[in-house]
Specification:
This protein has 418 residues and is an alpha/beta fold. 30% of the residues lie in helices and 17% in strands. The chain folds into two domains: 28-360, TIM Barrel; 364-418, no CATH class. Helix 2 links the parallel strand 1 and strand 2 (67-70). Helix 1 (28-34) packs parallel to helix 11, helix 5 packs parallel to helix 7 (194-206) and helix 10 (294-310) runs parallel beside helix 11 (345-359).
């Protein structure tokens, strides 16, 4: 395993274990940005103090990641504990932290069947046991989404709009290949399936520039019934004209579960729908921590996922669900850093993937968006590498506001990074 000088445990960087190896002073996020990609992390704000930039944990976050996600501070029960009472303090602290360090923010999540405030559902989101009418629930959903997305307009760049809406049992697709089944929730029971459509519409109206995602677990490998149901739902939303930009694959996995071919085949088919496909909550538990090669196997599967995503233009983001192994909801040491904030082989695996890609960009693709505008036409048409229109007659000075990725501008390939 290679060793690098990494920005991890001190204000600058720590030395690699082997002093004879040449120094690599680039952080993980540097290579991701040079690749036109983003690498993110979910932060438990109550355990990692985002107001103290000097702590080792916070330094590891802002030096190595360029996307930040709140684990819980942007869920309904945190933001609106009582009807009409919005509490943005912790969410604002996280966004302020991200902006200080040039990171973008993913909002998680606007509509879910868990961690719902007690005034909406006394069991956390499963039942409509306050007997709200359809119209009342739609108004509650609209008010919450509109208030939250408006509050963070221009600061939170993408949202998990609807999270985990599918039932685990999707045997329905065996007899109807285009079907899907939704799980019981206060939203589905009280409103009907169109709570999903409405949530996306409300979010888009509040911030038309934010990217909007469907998000779920157990939908990573092609061939499973739930994976197909997820694809069916995303396709239905898109064909219905709902403003959905992409799908999130959570990827809460255990070493040994990943099938690289099935994962690859699933990811790439979303391009044909014109949807972004990202990994939103990756962690990789080790089933036997005592095995001699346990951490190497974990690293190999992290590497496999990154290698799939990095080759597709419609897969710009990879987010890790947590910072270190003693601050995670899962057993099996699933993250990139151990409890002592030491980088594990999994970290180096991701580092090497992004570094290799950044250093071997195809000829003709620029690695930064720092070109001078010059005397070129003031408006441009922007396309992705598959020829799909991204923007028509965009003011040239705004092209650097595009999300990080590869584009065709002036009939040339260009990588936008932030």
């Amino acid at each position: 395993m290679k060793k690098h000088l990494l920005y991890l445990l001190c204000p600058l960087f720590i030395a690699a274990a082997n002093a004879q190896e040449s120094a690599d002073t680039q952080a993980l996020r540097d290579y991701a940005e040079k690749s036109g990609k983003k690498i993110g992390v979910a932060v438990p704000v109550w355990r990692i103090d985002v107001t103290n930039d000097g702590l080792p944990e916070t330094q590891a976050v802002y030096n190595n990641f360029n996307i930040l996600v709140a684990e819980n501070e942007m869920k309904i029960d945190a933001l609106q504990p009582n009807r009409g009472q919005f509490e943005f303090y912790h969410g604002d602290n996280l966004v302020n932290f991200a902006e200080r360090h040039g990171m973008t923010v993913r909002g998680h999540t606007l509509c879910w069947h868990k961690q719902v405030s007690g005034w909406i559902s006394s069991d956390g989101g499963q039942k409509n046991d306050h007997n709200y009418s359809r119209e009342e629930l739609l108004e509650i959903l609209k008010d919450h989404i509109t208030t939250v997305v408006t509050h963070y307009k221009g600061r939170v760049h993408e949202w998990d709009v609807v999270n985990e809406c599918l039932a685990d049992d999707q045997s329905i697709v065996r007899t109807n290949p285009t079907a899907y089944a939704l799980r019981p929730s206060v939203w589905y029971t009280g409103i009907g399936e169109d709570f999903i459509d409405s949530a996306f519409v409300y979010a888009h109206r509040a911030d038309p520039d934010a990217k909007l995602y469907l998000n779920d677990y157990g939908v990573e490998m092609q061939g499973s019934a739930k994976t197909q149901a997820y694809y069916n739902l995303a396709r239905r939303l898109q064909k219905s004209g709902i403003p959905i930009d992409g799908v999130g694959l959570q990827c809460h996995l255990t070493v040994g579960e990943l099938d690289s071919a099935k994962f690859d085949n699933n990811v790439k088919r979303y391009a044909s729908l014109g949807l972004t496909c990202i990994v939103t909550e990756l962690d990789m538990s080790i089933p036997d921590l005592g095995a001699a090669d346990a951490y190497e196997k974990q690293a190999a599967e992290y590497r496999t996922i990154a290698n799939v995503l990095i080759k597709y233009d419609h897969c710009p983001n990879l987010v890790i669900w947590g910072v270190k192994d003693d601050q995670t909801w899962r057993r099996g040491e699933p993250l990139l850093f151990n409890a002592a904030m030491q980088a594990k082989p999994a970290f180096y695996a991701l580092y090497d993937v992004y570094k290799e890609y950044a250093e071997n960009l195809p000829a003709g693709i620029e690695s930064t968006a720092a070109d001078a505008v010059g005397e070129l036409p003031p408006f441009v048409d922007v396309y992705d590498l598959m020829g799909r229109s991204v923007a028509r007659q965009m003011p040239r000075e705004r092209i650097y506001d595009l999300p990080a990725g590869l584009y065709i501008i002036d009939q040339k390939k260009m990588a936008i990074t932030h």
